[in-house]
């Protein structure tokens, strides 16, 4: 299994493992990942958590099925430095959703953050096609529902 995200690739995060509802993702921090106090920026920490939780959820899905984040909560415990390692596991899975938890520790083993998230299983979209076009209703006379934008 691979992460398959240009953004995560750009950050330099590496998938260590993703199997049986668990995952591990590691990121060696670079200067552009740091905040003004020279520790991991909160956005980097949250992104790494999101990636690890999503990969844990994906590890239980069939080929051609991906996940999207429905909601996520992160509690920051202390600053992270050098290398961040995110571990995650699925706590509950239904046919359409997965509820996951994870934590991030730095290279010295310090507890950096705790994350909880809900992920929706979705059929993966065809590569190279416009996302909006793929999401169009097949019936042109269909009317949007109250939650459609």
UniProtKB/TrEMBL annotation:
<protein>
    <submittedName>
        <fullName>Uncharacterized domain 1-containing protein</fullName>
    </submittedName>
</protein>
<feature type="domain" description="Thioesterase">
    <location>
        <begin position="39"/>
        <end position="110"/>
    </location>
</feature>
<dbReference type="Pfam" id="PF03061">
    <property type="entry name" value="4HBT"/>
</dbReference>
<keyword id="KW-0378">Hydrolase</keyword>
<dbReference type="InterPro" id="IPR003736">
    <property type="entry name" value="PAAI_dom"/>
</dbReference>
<dbReference type="InterPro" id="IPR052723">
    <property type="entry name" value="Acyl-CoA_thioesterase_PaaI"/>
</dbReference>
<dbReference type="GO" id="GO:0016289">
    <property type="term" value="F:acyl-CoA hydrolase activity"/>
</dbReference>
<dbReference type="InterPro" id="IPR029069">
    <property type="entry name" value="HotDog_dom_sf"/>
</dbReference>
<dbReference type="InterPro" id="IPR006683">
    <property type="entry name" value="Thioestr_dom"/>
</dbReference>
């Amino acid at each position: 299994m691979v992460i398959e995200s240009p953004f995560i690739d750009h950050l330099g995060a590496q998938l260590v493992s993703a199997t049986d509802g668990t995952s591990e993702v590691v990121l060696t921090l670079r200067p552009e990942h740091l905040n003004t106090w020279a520790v991991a920026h909160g956005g980097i920490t949250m992104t790494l958590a999101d990636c690890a939780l999503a990969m844990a959820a994906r590890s239980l899905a069939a080929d051609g099925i991906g996940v999207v984040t429905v909601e996520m909560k992160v509690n920051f415990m202390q600053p992270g430095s050098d290398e961040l390692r995110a571990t995650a596991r699925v706590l509950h899975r239904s046919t359409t959703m997965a509820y996951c938890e994870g934590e991030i520790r730095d290279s010295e083993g310090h507890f950096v953050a705790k994350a909880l998230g809900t992920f929706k299983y979705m059929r993966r979209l065809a590569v190279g096609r416009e996302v909006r076009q793929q999401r169009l209703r097949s019936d042109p006379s269909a009317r949007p529902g109250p939650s459609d934008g």
